[in-house]
Amino acid sequence: MQETAAAFAEELGHEHASLLKQLEELETMTAGSTVSAAGVLIESLRAVRAALHRHFLFEEKGGYMNHVLANAPQLHRRTEELLAEHTHIGRSVEELIGNAAAASPGAPISAEVCEQVRQWVKLVRGHEAGENKLVMEACCGDIGEED
Fold first, then answer.
1. What is the pTM of this model?
2. At a CB cut-off of 8 Å and minimum separation 6, what does 81 contact?
């Protein structure tokens, strides 16, 4: 069982690192006032969407958030709120893809869409930070307390 948990944690770590790298690439790509080609941004957004889907699977339906719920029931409300954010994040990336697709593949992306992407990346980073904090509280909440 411990080997399975270790393998799961390692795979989750790889998924998390991949997602963070892709978010960083989106930030870099949209750092200027425009992106030179809509097709490039759309491709990147689709790759991030796929990474998010895999990442969210690690958290939902028997994923590590169930561990949080089982070991720290006092964090139930916050856990459920964070899990519910997955739907919003998924819908918003679809909206971004649609906004980028409004331009022809070789056309530049507007400053407005670039800003939307940067704000979305900020949202995802905030979400991930909230989950990390929650997991740390669930796993380490009793460190330093007397038995």
1. 0.84
2. none
